[in-house]
Automatic annotation (TrEMBL):
Organism annotation: Parapedobacter deserti
Cofactor note: Binds 1 zinc ion per subunit.
Family statement: Belongs to the KduI family.
Gene transcribed to yield this protein: kduI
Recorded catalytic activity of this chain's protein: 5-dehydro-4-deoxy-D-glucuronate = 3-deoxy-D-glycero-2,5-hexodiulosonate
EC number: 5.3.1.17
Binding site for Zn(2+): 198, 200, 205, 247
Stated name of the protein: 4-deoxy-L-threo-5-hexosulose-uronate ketol-isomerase
Length: 280
């Protein structure tokens, strides 16, 4: 079996306050996303969300079901979002082949029985980062390139948060049940993401950090606005953000991150904004 999974139970803000550094990382950090010729999956009980990665090198990899789903196949009751952060590759969905280049995305709807991943060149393997959420309706599979994304530019060099938000798998671009995914690219000289910070009690989120230069790191901030914590992140690692938590970060260099979320609604701007001065 090429799919390796772990399950993470949800905890509340009261429990999170008592965690030391090691326990905080064990609860929220997804340290290993990509392993050669394996699919790695973390199933979190926050909105039954799944985050994982597939790195096919010497063979194609099939996304098989995992025990927590109690399903005959992975997408029996789920939808899937994929963004390639490696070399060129292919995703085959029930016999239909989709070519995905670097930073291109694919939405796969509920009911597709077989999803497999392959790389065009084993020397430069594809790295398919994916998120999945429960789905109540079958929407069509659709590829989305950066050119087709909804793009928003925010921040400024003066506040070190000049960034470009690429909304790839959102309801203004592709129909989904609840899953939304996109990619934020920080400009050179900028290090802060999602600042000012916010919460959205109606949705949870997962951040995947990549393009973090060798020898550099990103510090991810989480917790309630008046009781924040931090986790140091390295390249190609992800972090789970509960609905009660802020999700922001600062790097020792600029970087890129993929955000994925699911929950009560599809309104991207549904957030409870927090001013910088009220963070503790």
């Amino acid at each position: 079996m090429s799919v390796h999974y772990e399950s993470r139970y949800a905890i509340g803000p009261r429990e999170a306050k008592a965690l030391d550094t090691g326990a905080l990382r064990e609860q929220f950090l997804i340290a290993a996303i990509f392993t050669n010729d394996e699919i790695r999956v973390v199933y979190t009980h926050y909105d039954r969300y799944i985050a994982g990665g597939s790195k096919p090198v010497s063979k194609a990899l099939t996304l098989e079901t995992i025990d927590p789903l109690k399903a005959d196949y992975f997408l029996e009751r789920r939808e899937l979002g994929i963004i390639n952060v490696g070399g060129a590759g292919k995703v085959t969905v029930d016999g239909q082949v989709y070519e995905l280049g670097f930073k291109e995305a694919l939405y796969v709807g509920k009911g597709n029985k077989e999803v497999s991943f392959s790389s065009d060149d084993p020397a430069v393997p594809a790295k398919f980062y994916f998120n999945s959420a429960p789905a109540h309706h079958a929407y069509p599979t659709k590829k989305v390139t950066k050119a087709e994304a909804e793009i928003v530019e925010l921040g400024s060099p003066e506040t070190a948060n000049h960034r470009v938000i690429n909304k790839l798998l959102v309801n203004s671009v592709v129909e989904t049940c609840q899953l939304q995914m996109g990619m934020t690219e920080l400009k050179k000289g900028s290090v802060w993401n999602t600042m000012p910070a916010h919460t959205h009690d109606r949705r949870m989120e997962v951040y995947f950090y990549f393009e973090v230069p060798e020898g550099q790191a990103a510090c991810h901030f989480l917790g309630q606005p008046d009781e924040t914590r931090h986790i140091w992140m390295h390249n190609e690692q992800a972090v789970i953000s509960p609905p009660w938590s802020i999700h922001a970060g600062a790097g020792t260099s600029n970087y890129t991150f993929i955000w994925g979320m699911a929950g009560e609604n599809l309104d991207y701007d549904d957030m409870d904004k927090r001013t910088i001065t009220e963070l503790r």
